[in-house]
Design goal:
By secondary structure, the protein is α+β, with helices and mostly antiparallel strands. It is 34% helix and 25% strand. A hairpin with a 6-residue loop joins strand 4 and strand 5.
Length: 474
């Protein structure tokens, strides 16, 4: 693109043109930018820069790829007084996120008992498209869940106060209003608490292969050789319905103030409008559903681990969200501003001493969890002050796709995937082999390269590299 210029080894600027209100900033190295330019995600970075109230720049992380309206891997902060909120800047899977638990087991324990553990996890945790679980909630229970989030699950014996302390927002987003959630969304959520779903959601047992930062790893309770558990999922059908309902309402909105946007998928309304407040209230309720869901899934995993390895522990290290919009205070041009930060396929990365970092981690910074593909690696990073200065305390969220699901099915195939996983020493169980192929390692960017960029740019810092051993998919 003619308007793209290199700032340094890890940053590119998309210059303002036309009706862009701010420039774009893309975090990528040369190889990564070549891949980014193959889809239309840079066009989406440009489109987001048109939105009213956007502050400083339209941001793109190195795992960026084409999404609905906003690119996946996009960050945009809006002035709460003059800006807009866009469901496309959050995504359909509201509060899709990652939860990492450390164990008192070693890699050798998992290698010895892995088949039993994987079979038990697959038997216990419901997964697959539309799958329902053990819970069927009535209206009162759904309302309580949407207001309390992960705390709802803890009150029912699924975890502890320590789990809440080590969850972003302590597992409950303020301002949630169940009355802003449609009856259809409520119905879709009644039976899906404690379910994994399908697509790129997973349960993964791995181990700590490499420690890069001994002090921070010690604060996080990580050591080399330790077995770990990663859970990646979101708000299931309820969150999807909330997004769909909100987009439909905004796209058909007529009369009153007209907001000029370059793409219909960027449908938005002023943050302070009644429609804006209603979306944010429904989004917060869906986010709380996502936290409750992951809390119940961790509880199930704990039961399974204890059954296979009596006396084993799963201690939550942290839970991060990567599809959410949150009101935060950031310093812009020397002043404190209240901003609505859209993070779509992007992770919060707050630094040491920040009040929103759990007290036990405050001396080092917020844990940042970056899942890769199921055949290579995942990372634990830590937030930095530079992220606060440049990206509103944000960084990447994963490896990022390079092949669509249809391209993966056509070009990879089950035989090739099985060979890739066998060579990586990964055992798997999946509800759908078609879905498994769609999530093949070669359908994703190299997570090592993505992490190299954010580490090199200083918007997160490497702490540990995890390797998968057992993978469960829907």
């Amino acid at each position: 693109m003619a308007d793209l210029e290199r700032i340094d080894e890890f940053r590119w600027r998309l210059r303002r043109s036309g009706k862009m209100r701010v420039p774009g900033v893309i975090y990528a190295d040369g190889k990564g930018l070549e891949r980014i330019e193959r889809d239309r995600s840079l066009e989406q970075v440009r489109n987001v820069a048109h939105l009213p109230g956007i502050v400083r720049c339209s941001l793109a992380m190195p795992d960026i790829h084409w999404g609905y309206g906003f690119p996946i891997g996009g960050v945009a902060a809006m002035d709460v007084e003059e800006g807009v909120v866009s469901p496309g800047g959050v995504g359909y899977d509201i509060n899709c996120g990652v939860r990492l638990a450390r164990t008192n087991l070693d890699r050798e324990d998992i290698l010895a008992g892995g088949d039993r553990l994987l079979s038990a996890l697959f038997s216990r945790i419901p997964c697959g498209v539309g799958g329902g679980g053990d819970w069927k909630l009535n209206d009162r229970e759904m309302r309580d869940l949407l207001e309390r989030g992960a705390g709802w699950a803890v009150r029912r014996g699924c975890g502890s106060a320590g789990d809440l302390r080590r969850t972003e927002e302590e597992g409950c987003m303020g301002g949630a209003d169940p009355d802003a959630v449609s009856a259809r969304a409520i119905d879709r959520g009644r039976t899906q608490v404690g379910t994994l779903g399908s697509g790129n959601h997973f349960v993964e047992v791995g181990w700590v292969e490499t420690i890069y930062d001994e002090r921070t790893a010690a604060a996080f309770g990580l050591r080399e050789g330790m077995a770990t558990l990663l859970i990646h999922c979101g708000s299931r059908g309820l969150g999807h319905q909330v997004c769909g309902d909100s987009l439909q309402a905004m796209q058909r909105r007529s009369g009153g103030e007209t907001i000029e946007i370059p793409d219909r998928q960027l449908a938005c309304v002023p943050i302070r409008s009644s429609a804006g407040r209603r979306y944010l209230s429904a989004m917060a309720a869906a986010a709380n559903y996502g936290w409750a869901n992951r809390q119940v899934l961790l509880h199930m995993a704990r039961e399974v681990f204890d059954g296979v390895f009596p006396g084993s522990r799963l201690d939550l290290l942290y839970d991060v969200s990567h599809n959410i919009a949150k009101t935060e205070t950031h310093r812009v041009k020397g002043n404190e501003w209240r901003l609505l930060v859209h993070r779509k396929g992007a992770t919060r990365a707050f630094p040491a001493s920040h009040r929103d970092v759990p007290e036990e981690y405050r001396a080092v910074g917020q844990p940042v969890l970056i899942p890769g593909d199921m055949g290579t690696a995942s990372y634990v990073l830590v937030g930095t002050e530079r992220a606060m200065e440049e990206t509103f305390g944000s960084t990447c969220h994963g490896a990022g796709r390079v092949k669509s699901r249809s391209q993966a099915k056509k070009g990879i195939g089950l035989e090739r995937l099985e060979r890739e996983l066998a060579e990586a020493g990964v055992r798997y169980r999946a509800r759908s082999l078609k879905t498994l192929v769609e999530e093949a390692p070669s359908a994703y960017k190299e997570v090592d390269g993505v992490v190299r960029v954010v580490h090199g740019a200083g918007i997160a810092r490497k702490v540990a590299r995890l390797r998968p051993l057992l993978v469960m998919k829907g």
